[in-house]
Amino acid sequence: FLALARAITGDHYIGVLTFQAAAAGLGCIYVAQLTQTLSQNKTAACLAAFFYSFYPYFIGQTAMIIEVTLFMTLLAASAYYYVKVADMKSAFFCGVAFSLTLLTRTMVFPAFLAAVAALFFERRWKQGILIGAVMALFLTPYFWRNYHIDGSIVPPRSGWNLLQGNCPYSEKTIPKYNPDLLDAYVSKVLQEERPDLLTDEGLDVAKKTDRFYTAKALEFMRTHPWKTLRLKIKNVFYLFHPHIVPFNSMGKNTR
Fold it and tell me: What is the pTM of this model?
């Protein structure tokens, strides 16, 4: 996506941001159509499009080179085609939307598997098989490439993110600052407890590192269950906070 945006705009920074914002704008159409399909109410569809367009956090993300804007549009398209999956044409487009969304961010993989499983549960075999086949066509080269790089199927960095959100410094950092502020801490934990992974050149070193980070995060969650629960509840409420999070930007001297 970025390669296309850079080629079209002549590698102009503001041009790339504009291209990205235009892609985000397509999501507004899908959100409106999705709401219209579900509610059969044009007013509800307009309101959904309005809230999508003026969501503070999303506006903030659109002003950065980041995958969130494209991801949101593809996610909205996935939801739209899924609710219209009664015919095979919509099932095909649903499979394409699911695949492109997964290629943008793999975190939705469990949700999409559940969505396809729900079609089989409702005995809509043809639609479920078609969506699965399209996803296999799109994703197999991606999985194959990942496997031949480091032996993993999907990017093995979920443990890193999980530890950022579940460590002794998470509560005081999030959402005041970007979780990336904790990168130095996460790296230090590995250096102190598993220095062997820093010198290991095996094919599965990325998976071993990811398992280590995941285990450290789960250990913190087990040791501090109430602190973990409190932080997660706060995270949910901050989804609706009118002020863009994180509250404070990070400078070069932020520690």
Answer: 0.79
